[in-house]
């Protein structure tokens, strides 16, 4: 009989723990949507948060969560230039939060020891935004190109521009919480300044910059061209949750 009671209590404990973590996952997703806009700007956008580790309630009582994963998709970014048609579709954003300490329940803020993750852009999305912003009477298609290095990925741009055939190599620079896309000899940006690939609002002909709402102290560390798109790596130490950089 005692064994049965112990088993029943254990099952109830596990059930309570799972119910609590399910509720916490939903609340965390709501907060992330409110703070950063993840999954809130498109009809098909999504955001999932999973608090890992067991037992969850023990982690809560200690004020520290071992591991939390966040997955968002079908996001939309707008460029610094606020140009017509400047929306850039993000296929997905995955973040893995290691060592989450709740710093303020009232402010709903926390500090994370380490954040790692990836942001993915498809060539289809890049083709669309480059055509809308930089084309001149024709469509432009983006595909893979060799030569990615560090925080800069390269891609090939082909199509028609100004009545002539285009076959050139563009670049995507990911630094801080910004994405800088440049296609030499094609299009024009929303303003005038130097033609260097720096993360400013207007960086020269054929260049646009988008800000990404990442938590404080998190930023891009690498950009890599793949057969299907461009992957941007995210990393951050002592990351603050609950606010994002003004650049985002």
UniProtKB/TrEMBL annotation:
Residues 194-206 have a biased composition (Low complexity). Residues 184-206 are annotated as: Disordered. Pfam families: LmeA. InterPro entries: DUF2993 (IPR021373). This is DUF2993 domain-containing protein.
